[in-house]
Sequence to fold (233 residues):
Amino acid sequence: MKVEVEIGQVHRFELREALLIYQAGRRSFITRHEVLAQKQGPPVLGVAQPLTTAFVANLAESLGGSAAAEVLPESILAKSDRMIAWWTPRRRRRMFYENPEGKAQELSGKMFPQPPLVWSVSNGDLEIRALRENKRPDAQTTLAVAPYWNLSEDGRVCLGSMRCPDSTSVASIERWEKGFYESAFTHANVGRLTRHGGGHDALWNEMAGKRCPFPSDALIPLPQTLAQFIQGR
Fold:
C-alpha cells in the first residue's frame, strides 16, 4: 500500500509495519509486525516482534510528540509526556456545592481550609489524594483519602462539567486546580470520606469560614504510598 500526502511537497509513504494492541481491562500490551507484500492479494503481517523503547521514542518523535524541556518547580513530584504529579500545601479555597437534593447547599460559595494534597493528571484523568503532613512528600510517604465529593475510591475525579486543560504541562497546573475548585461538588462516590464523627457535611460545616489549618486527624489514612499512587497502583 502506498499513500501520497502533500505537506508543502509530495511525500510517498509505504506501509512497512503494524502495531497490534491487546487489552484486558486497564492492562494492555502491543506487538510489532512487519507488513509483507504479496504478489497477489492484500499484504499480510509477519511474526510478532517485541516493542522496544527506542522504537516508541522514534515513533513519538516522528509524530511530533516530543515535548519541549520545562523548568520544574519544587511542587512537581513526577513528570512525563502524558503525566504530571504535584503537591499543594495547606491553604484556603472557595468550594461550591450543587445537587438536586439540596445537600450541603449551605456550604456553597464559602471559604474553607484545605488539607495538603497530591494531584496527578494522566491521559486526561485527574486523581487526588490528601497528605497528613504539610510538607513535600517523598516516594514512601503514605497518603490519605481526599475528603471531597466527586472522587472515587482510587482518587479519580468525576470530571462532569469541569473545565479541563488539554495538556499536562507545568503551565496547566493552575488551570487543573482552578477547574477542580470552581466546578460544583455534586455527589459522594464512596461511603466514607473522613474520620470526623459527623461525617463529610459536619466536617465542612465546622471548617466553613475558618482560618485554622485543616485537621489532619480528620483524614482517613491509606496504605498507598506516593510511588504507588503515581504508578497507578
The CA atoms of residues 51 and 180 lie 37 Å apart. Residues 53-62 form the longest helix (10 residues). The mean pLDDT is 88.
